[in-house]
Amino acid sequence: MRYTVAVFGEAERGNFQTAFFCQNLEQLESHFGNPPENSVGIQFAIQSLLYDRNLIFFRVKEEGFSTSDYLQGLYQLEKQHLFSNIKAVGMPGVGNGEIIGASETFCNIYNSILITSEADLYDYLTDHGS
């Protein structure tokens, strides 16, 4: 069974707040194009595909800051039981407590992990650690 990874990130094209199921690099490139400068969501998506995972990609307006895009995407994942084998959620750039909290709820329900960076974890911990 191929596991699925859900990734949120910026891209040059594609719909916002819409789940796009992708199985290869060609589909990812044709639907979303190139990443904007300083964006890493597409890189996360490419790594997922190269590790032979299915991908659900959500385009966000700005990585780490488009709260409504992240919350809508998580809501879609949680309510549409079409994606039952999501083993990881990648949210590069996110240190926002509201978004992390919503992803934690999803990850607990579906026994998934959250993929983030050291910098994002530091932002989250220093913003909420006191």
Q: What features would you describe in this structure?
A:
By secondary structure, the chain is α/β, with parallel strands linked by helices. It is 43% helix and 18% strand. Strands 2-3-1-4-5 form a five-stranded mixed beta sheet, sandwiched between helices. Helix 3 runs parallel beside helix 4. The radius of gyration is 14 Å and the shape is globular. The model has no long low-confidence stretch (mean pLDDT 90).
Structural class: alpha/beta
How far apart lie the N and C ends?
Answer: 42 Å
Mean pLDDT equals 90
Low-confidence stretches: none
* Main sheet specs: 5 strands, mixed
Q: What order do the SSEs take from the amino end to the carboxyl end, as H and E?
A: EEHHEHEHEH
Number of strands: 5
**Rg for CA atoms:** 14 Å
Helix content: 40-55%
Q: Which percent band covers the strand fraction? A: 15-25%
What shape does the CA trace take? globular
Number of helices: 5
Spatial order of the strands forming the largest sheet: 2-3-1-4-5
Task: Write a brief structural summary.
With 130 residues, the chain is α/β, with parallel strands linked by helices.
Set out the fold topology.
Layout: E1 4-9, E2 20-22, H1 25-32, H2 41-50, E3 54-59, H3 67-79, E4 86-90, H4 97-110, E5 113-115, H5 118-128
Parallel strand pairs: 1-3, 1-4, 4-5
Antiparallel strand pairs: 2-3
Characteristic terms for this protein:
130 residues, 5-stranded mixed beta sheet, globular
